[in-house]
Amino acid sequence: MKILIAEDDPVSRRLLEVTLSKWGYEVVTCADGQAAWDVLQTPDAPQLVILDWMMPLLDGLQVCRNVRNPAERPAEPYVYIILLTAKSQKTDMVTGLEAGADDYLTKPFDTQELRMRLRAGRRILDLLDELVRAREIMREQARKDSLTQLCTRATVLELLKHELDRSQRNSTDRDAPVSVVLADLDHFKHINDTYGHLAGDAVLREAARRMQDAIRPYDSIGRYGGEEFLLVLSNCDTIGAAAIAERLIQAVRKDTIVLAEATVSVTLSVGVATSGVIQDPEALVGAADAALYRAKRSGRNRVEVATAADMKAG
What we know:
Layout: E1 2-6, H1 10-22, E2 26-30, H2 33-40, E3 48-52, H3 60-68, E4 80-85, H4 90-99, E5 103-106, H5 111-142, H6 153-169, E6 179-185, H7 188-195, H8 197-214, E7 220-225, E8 228-233, H9 238-253, E9 257-258, E10 263-264, E11 268-274, H10 281-297, E12 303-305, H11 308-313
Parallel strand pairs: 1-2, 1-3, 3-4, 4-5, 11-12
Antiparallel strand pairs: 6-8, 6-11, 7-8, 9-10
Helix pairs in contact: 2-3, 7-8, 8-9
């Protein structure tokens, strides 16, 4: 693990450097508080720090305050700080901890005590890293539909809003419309009723995989609800969106889906709407939904594009 030593006394600094290097640390040294603060602002800054209290330019307390100030430095990755000082009064210890230090060691320090304090710091950093990883996994899981592994409804609508905002905010993107494609599996209730819900889940997973493979790498697809899927197509006009929708239909119906007791053929009905008159995400999806409903009424297994009337209704 990389460790930062900020100590203005050259003898003490060298002693710490040699000792910590023997213990297997990658040591970075600084002779004043400003240099230490500069190091701690770099992308690959050490997460374990030994700070002398009394230093030129910035003292150890000010460096602690800077590290803990969210306006000065992000809270992650966490930096574990051991404050090293000749001050030994309880009030001094409290002052150091209130400034943001995690631990406190008085001079002259015992090397074995320092080693144990560093081990404790490493355990805490390891635990925090595990918590951050677990949080990111949970965050990712919350953004994905557990069955299809596509985006959730909330996530894909969030992406749609972001794309519409971007196209309006940036003048270079205003001529690059955003399209939505709302796709619905035809006669899905019949599959559930005939083969059971586990078979229905298998059909949803396979249809989702085929649609995911059929879209552009930079497009987004999410499970909108039940057997409905919503696609967000950036920089895509109506003609391009309709072509992608046709590709989805071909991908889903191309091959039968093999279930445990049977094989089934699946088709899609699709509605397409493109931004322009409409810039509201829900209204745009509403227009695509109207086009999808028309595709269902017209025989299914087809693409319908939102009309001007759909846009006004949306």
